[in-house]
Amino acid sequence: MISGLTPLAVTSVTTSVALTVSMGLVLVAMIVWLARVEDIRSYVPASDIGGGAGQTEYGHEEKPGGITRWLTTVDHKDIGVLYGVYSVITLAWGGLSVLIMRTELLDPPATLIQSTTYNALLTSHGITLLFLFGTPILAAFANYFVPLLIGADDMAFPRINSIAFWLLPPGALLIWAGFFIPGIAPSQTSWTMYTPLSIQQPSPAVDLMLLGLHLTGVSATMGAINFIATIFTERAEEVDWANLDIFSWTVLTQSGLILFSFPLLGSALVMLLLDRNFGTTFFTVGGGGPLLWQNLFWFFGHPEVYIIVLPPMGLISIILPKFSGRKLFGFKFVVYSTLAIGVLSFGVWAHHMFATGMDPRLRASFMAVTLAIAVPSAVKTFNWMTTMWNGRLRLTAPMLFCIGFVSLFIIGGVTGVFLASIPVDLVLTDTYYVVGHFHFILMAILTAVFAGVYYWFPLYTGKWYQRGLAKWHFWLFMIGSNLTFFAMILLGYAGMPRRYATYNVDIGPVAQFTDLHQVATLGAYLIGLSGIIFLWNIVQSWLEGPPVQSSDPWELAEDGLLTNEWQWFDHQRETAITDGGAESEETDTDTDDNSEETA
Amino acid sequence: MNRVKQLLLGLGFAVIGMSIVALPVAAAGYDSTTEALIQSLNLKLLYVAVPITILVEGILIYTVWRFRNNDDPKPTKENRRLEITWTVATAIILLFVGVASYQVLALPAVTATPQVTDSEQANATEVTVVGQQFLWTFKYPEENVTSRGTLVLPANRTVYLNITSRDVIHSVHIPELGLKQDAVPGQYNLLRTTPTSQGTYQLYCAEYCGVGHSQMTATVKVVSYDEYQQWLEDQKQSQ
Ligand code: HEM
Ligand SMILES: [Cu+2]
Ligand SMILES: [Cu+2]
Asked: Best residue in B94, B110, B113, B205 to probe A by mutation, most A CBs within 10 Å?
């Protein structure tokens, strides 16, 4: 595209430059507009938090009503809900795109969709779920609960918090632009965007995607700074480092990882944009070389996988003990292992590059650190299991998902160790085995998210979800995940490469591939079905579910496990009752007794 | 405690049974020195990992089953010694993985280095493998032969594959011979192996390289040395 400038290439260069610049301008304009919206400037954060501290003079009536409230809010809880709703939408697209791909893979040739479409969906699926779902859904929990858990009034910088969120919707639109702007092909770079392929693809959708990614990176970085500042400076007096809760610890570590890795991704993305549009040679052969991109990308990319797994580990560490009727076993060791993972995760990136022909001695040292990082992961697992041992397990929906997390995480971790072994990695890398490995962990992350959604459902909605549906959700999800990703592990052992739109090869074991792909697709449908049940349950229960009757809906007090956020909830309910239901929740008189739920 | 032991024993047997059934890879026999080395390492790891996984999952399920709705919960008591024990135990297992892997890794059939003795070089077959969207080309520099889409190799001789690309990154992936190496433009990556059984194998492109990625396959034929010579002659004739 740079050397031999054919007329076609020239037009495509100019269109993509023009699009890039104009999108950039639109974004700047949006930020300026957002910053100028009157409400944001004059808005006093409704600091109705404080739990035991109890300083709640600001009522809810300060919040503007309807849509304006949601567009202008700087309340951390509202922003948490916004993150949550956004993530559900992105999760839906990520799930839908992969269901189309899985359907295509039911048979070896391209029958349903063309390879170009397959590759576009592949790219969108990965990027959407990692950047538009994975990081934001965790921000949803962190926004809502970190201030409550540490007894802060709000985040340290409520407005930055709001801006960080509002960068995400334009980010998503840019990333998905190729699918709805007529006349341009969606980006087909895969989520890793390896050069020179990503430089070579002419569609301006790639530039838009890079800009969108850049925005989400800025958003994540702003969020991270905010969490660090909040946890350092906004803790209530009685919360010190020794009794900081485990979820906040993981969010703090995660924010540190974001701070050191996302800006690097941002720079690398800009360099890639320059390579694409202005003929620079950062990542071209003869310039910086194609492997420079991989080094930069994975220096970000490996910490990214821990960015999305640490807070879920925190969720498990906080929820699992509640339904075991006892405190987390080895609290200190769980915190240490979190910090250890945080540090080590910057020393393993080259394990994604074992087959690139890198220096063999360097390779061995990356193997060593990769094996080392499995130790703190295993320590956490053992601590969770020991927490359950000798406890009083209540198999509620959140607890089931916690157990599901542990069970999926074990398989994800063990399969990871095989990949750390370089000789074994050499046959398995870039096959379905890798896809199986990381999806076991990604599915574990999803179970932690579901555990969190169900656990705090009474707190943020004041309602109960439907217990039966939640169990259906759980079992379908677990069976589906194991079917799909175990089949992928076997596909990988049989040699099936990843990112294949078709597999009608001449010599390879096509029959075996077909069978395993069909099992994987069946599992994916089950996961999809579980997702629909989940969505229905949440929406329906939020609107019509029976109201919660107690401010300790999980009966945690008797085990001495009532944490700050429930004290806040208690306070919240009291205020709501005294000033006549400011939460505008019609208090149902025909009370369904839901104490069963906790049994 | 007895019940636990029985359970564990049962699980242990189940594991061994399963690994024998579930591992056709192991039974198939090896088709190259590289595959033999890597797959026996893999098998060794599996023999450790599969029982551990099933054991841990088993304990998890047992814990849930045993302590659900337990009337007599005990408060959490910290236990430093237990923490240190499992940290060290995990570290030892991973050390085993590291050492076992390193021993295999250091062998030339797994990590080929350009420095080889002349005598080794003399008997070896060298092929330059070039990836280009979406086709593989195999050049035999000593013979002045170029083949597209088919790689022919003599059995039981050392083979060097010099791998590169003309455009984007591809990857040579011949699972049945245990071979994988990226084809990176501007760089030559070396693979060394000795195919040990004659047959036809699938070569895939394993690095995503664009729209034709999943069609970028080639055929690998391992034949006797005589057949190989014959094939080279035929190629020279037709070129
Ligand atoms: C027990 C600890 C773990 C070890 C030893 C481990 C090891 C590895 C290795 C060596 C690879 C590279 C495979 C290859 O491309 O050839 C890999 C890939 C991957 N791992 Fe893990 N892993 C571990 C835990 C995790 C965790 C916690 C996550 C979190 C989500 C994760 C997510 C991923 C992802 C997303 C990839 C694939 C990236 C890609 O190529 O697209 N892994 N893992
Ligand atoms: Cu990694
Ligand atoms: Cu390819």
From this structure: B94
What is the 3-class SS of A183-252, one letter each residue? CCCCCCCCCCCCCCHHHHCCCHHHHHHHHHHHHHHHHHHHHHHHHHHHHHHCCCCCCCHHHCCHHHHHHH
Query: 0.80 exceeded by the pTM?
Result: yes
Handedness of CA A43, A48, A54, A56 (dihedral sign): positive
- Is the Cβ atom of A352 under 6 angstroms away from ligand 1? yes
H or E, element range at B160: strand B159-165
* Tens of pLDDT, residues B100-131: 999 999 998 898 876 655 556 667 899 999 99
Calpha distance A372→A375 (Å, rounded): 6
The interface predicted TM-score (ipTM) is 0.89
- Burial (CB < 10 A; 0-12, 13-18, 19+), residue A92, is middle
Check if A448 has its Cβ closer than 6 Å to any atom of ligand 1. Answer: no
Whether residue A175 contacts residue A124, with contact meaning beta carbons closer than 8 Å, is answered with yes
pLDDT digits (tens, 9 = 90+) for A20-41: 677 678 777 876 776 665 444 4
* Most A CBs within 10 Å, among B56, B163, B188, B222, to test the A interface: B56
Q: Are A411 and B53 inside 8 Å of each other by CB? A: yes
Please, are residues B104 and A423 in contact by the beta-carbon 8 Å criterion? yes
d(CA B149, CA B217): 7
Report which secondary-structure segment, H or E, holds B172. Answer: strand B170-174
